[in-house]
Amino acid sequence: MLTDTDTDTDVVVVGYGPVGGVLAILLAQRGLRVTVLEQRARPYLLPRATSFDGETARLIAGTGIGPQIGEFTEPADGYRWQNAAGQALLEIDFAAVGPYGWPDANTMHQPTLEARLATRLSTLPGVDIRRGEQVVGLADDGDHVEVTSTALDGATRTLTARWVVGCDGARSFVREALGVPVTDLGFSYDWLLCDVELAEPRTFTPSNTQICDPARPTTLVASGPGHRRWEFMRLPGESNAELERPETAWRLLAPFDVSPANATLLRTATYTFQARWADQWRVGRVLLAGDAAHLMPPFAGQGMCSGIRDVANLAWKLDLVLRGLADASVLDSYTAERRKQVEESIRSSVKLGKVICVSDPGVAADRDAAMLARASSGTNARSEPAPPLSRGLLYQRFTGVTEPPAGDVVPQGRVRYQGRTGLFDEVVGRGFGLLTTEDPLAALGAERLAFLVGLGAHVVRLVSPSDGDGVGDVDGAADAVVDLDGMYLPYLESCDGTTLLVRPDHHVFGAAKGAVEAAILVDDLRAQLTGATRAPRSRLGI
């Protein structure tokens, strides 16, 4: 049996798009050895995704590039769905600062995002990035995986890793090599994509629009500073070759006052979106993430977001397993948690796709009538909160099933802590967090606190601005975090709790009320991480 030091690397990440890049950083930041294999010799300099939501912005900031996010993003102010006559079928407003400390929606220039991630990764020790190497073989030997790759010069190389994660996109070699079944909803259409760089700044209000015109369903979205994307659905009887001609793109762009005189057409291409997911995301020591695990229509803007959620969920679990702090069975919770979330996102995206992908005028008229009736209240929709987890590595408080707030994404506000003021993640730190209104030492005891510290957890006591200044200890128990925005204390109160235990991916593990249950909460986390049997509630007096 190989030991950790016998393998060439701890984790091989196959694929170096944004999902693979984020995963590599999250692992390397934890001190793990990471090898990235990417078949492209050079970065791909054209955008694919065009936006990410507030939760994803928070996760990306966790890679250390938070201060640079504004360089390649612009907040979106809204998302409008309108019919051919310009009547609003659906309008969604986006907040400039949402519940996770970032704008609800961020339009972005993907190549710049990837460049910033690459720069960050280059500063971390223990990282080996191999461009121009295509993975051609995987052999899981039980305690390690042998990965075979072919370089551009034809040379074949083999390296050993404790774990392999396939982030290698829709045509994933890793997924095909695993032979896992795929669920396909059979919803797909061809669209012409036109990426445009504008010569002069222009304001588009709202930032993003879907034109549900049966004569030509059309998408208009921002894609970061100075860039926009138009997408046009291929109509029955049209060929992809006809659509991809530059003159066709300019003809379709002309009604939007976009021409060679005021814009550069960076790319035209037809693509076919799909709605599908892999049924298994882990086979032995090999896992899938991002487009290798799932594909969805673009209308909810959740494709890349879902991939970033995948690796944020996976990175801390791999770290604990590799450090011997968790049993390898913990990695089974990755599929259990994320596949259900992704399935719901895909079905939601398909539902939106069925609104716009209509080329029959009669069907479109019926759709318009139904949606206009629902929109008659005149109240715009708001951006929905991040999807919670409903199963997996979560606390089951009393009933033996997961109940809120377990699974929620904990909100983020400004706090004051040890003389610093800012967003919680930046001031207190990331990783496991135990937030309490009680004295943690009295509630948990020294042994449980030591267990949390061993996980790298931040144990803090929450106070209101009138109760403390965030400098030094509160009652000698823990450094006080002053809840400046009134985000955390009301959240705890709404949970009927005094203690909140949060996972490194910002999902709430569980809440507890009082010292006895706080101790049980921590014990339950330890039991789930180590694979131990949970103690029955009747034995605990609850």
From the N-terminal CA to the C-terminal CA, the straight-line distance is 44 Å
- Indicate the proportion of strand residues: 25-35%
Poorly predicted spans: 471-477, 537-542
Tally the helices: what do you get? 14
Counting helices, strands and paired strands, the structural category is alpha+beta
> Mean of the pLDDT scores?
93
Rg of Cα set:
24 Å
Number of strands: 30
For the biggest sheet, the summary is: 8 strands, mixed
Shape field:
globular
Q: What would you say this structure looks like, in words?
A:
It is a single chain. 30% of the residues lie in helices and 28% in strands. The chain is built from 14 helices and 30 strands. The strands form five sheets. Strands 1, 2, 8, 9, 10, 11, 19 and 20 form an eight-stranded mixed beta sheet that branches. Strands 17-13-16-15-14-5-6-22 form an eight-stranded mixed beta sheet. Strand 1, helix 1 (18-29) and strand 2 (34-38) form a beta-alpha-beta unit. Helix 1 packs parallel to helix 4 (110-122), helix 1 (18-29) packs parallel to helix 8 and helix 8 (303-322) packs antiparallel against helix 9 (332-356). The chain is globular. Mean pLDDT is 93; it is low at 471-477 and 537-542.
Give short descriptive properties of this protein.
single chain, alpha+beta, eight-stranded mixed sheet, 542 residues, disordered C terminus, 14 helices
